[in-house]
Specification:
By secondary structure, the protein is α/β, with parallel strands linked by helices. The N terminus is likely disordered. A 6-stranded mixed sheet has the order 5-6-7-3-8-9, sandwiched between helices. Strands 2-1-4 form a 3-stranded antiparallel sheet, with helices on one face. Helices cover 31% and strands 25% of the residues. The protein is built from 7 helices and 9 strands. The protein has a single domain, classed as Rossmann fold (3-Layer(aba) Sandwich), CATH 3.40.50. The structure holds adenosine-5'-triphosphate (ATP) and magnesium ion (MG). Adenosine-5'-triphosphate binds next to strand 2 and helix 1.
């Protein structure tokens, strides 16, 4: 389908979401979680999404992360529909374009800090010196002195900073974060939140973080809220 026929207008935004709907088929009845969600995001821009538990924040991130297809509407990245790719194409696209940070750091316990950051490069195309970039990223997140430590020997904030470096190792254009500071105390949450914003600006990465924390959300230039499946701008 041509862009004009689908109503899609070309824009400068990296990410364009139009009239996104998501309905889960449950045993009882269809459950509509996202209703006509629309927004745009440019490279280097950061968006915080808030909303009550069960409002569909993680569902939205899974769709944007191409892990789950939408039921209706459009998701475009650089004007292209990732869901039009076949499975192998989509996996390659996801690995090269999108980074994820979750509430749980999901580090491998037997691997060092440096090895954990290098994990996503194992399936990446041959390319630049990954170890050099991993060391630079770990330096930027303040862990240059913890390269050879194991996750069990590190604090919660340090582990989450490794997860940030790991998410950025393949130079993603879009960073998706689900409650990235949910397991951290307030001081650590603030410093990790600031680190996210600084790194995304510096690396020209678009970022979406869903969070219950109004402290974290307040540091974002753009904030939206999911209520009854609809996404609204926040004051
Ligand atoms: N695979 C699924 N099948 C059926 N329902 C689902 C599925 N995944 C999620 N849901 C439902 O969708 C709703 C939204 O879930 P989601 O995980 O997106 O919420 P959330 O906003 O991230 O909540 P929280 O803040 O608690 O993490 C929930 O009511 C959940 O039960
Ligand atoms: Mg969630």
């Amino acid at each position: 389908m041509k862009a004009q026929e689908s109503g899609y207008q070309m824009s400068d935004s990296f990410l364009s979401v139009r009239n996104l709907n998501k309905t889960f088929e449950t045993r009882a009845e269809p459950l509509q979680i996202l209703r006509e969600v629309s927004f745009e995001l440019s490279l280097g821009e950061s968006l915080a999404v808030m909303g009550p538990s069960g409002s569909g924040k993680s569902t939205l991130l899974h769709i944007l992360g191409t892990l789950e297809p939408p039921s209706g509407g459009e998701v475009r990245m650089e004007g292209k529909d990732p869901f039009a790719l076949d499975d192998a194409g989509l996996a390659a696209f996801r690995n090269g374009t999108i980074g994820f940070v979750f509430q749980e750091h999901h580090l491998l316990p037997q691997c060092s800090t440096l090895e954990n950051v290098l994990l996503p490069t194992i399936v990446a195309a041959e390319g630049p010196d990954h170890e050099k970039r991993a060391r630079e990223l770990l330096d930027q997140v303040g862990l240059a002195h913890r390269m050879e430590y194991r996750p069990a020997e590190l604090s919660g904030g340090e582990r989450q900073r490794i997860a940030i470096a790991r998410a950025l190792i393949n130079k993603p254009k879009l960073l998706l974060c689900d409650e990235p500071t949910g397991n951290l105390d307030r001081v650590n949450a603030e410093s990790v939140g600031k680190l996210f914003l600084d790194l995304c600006e510096q690396h020209h990465t678009a970022m979406i973080a869903v969070t219950h924390s109004s402290t974290l959300a307040a540091t974002f230039p753009k904030r939206m809220e999911l209520l009854d499946g609809e996404l609204h701008p926040m004051e």
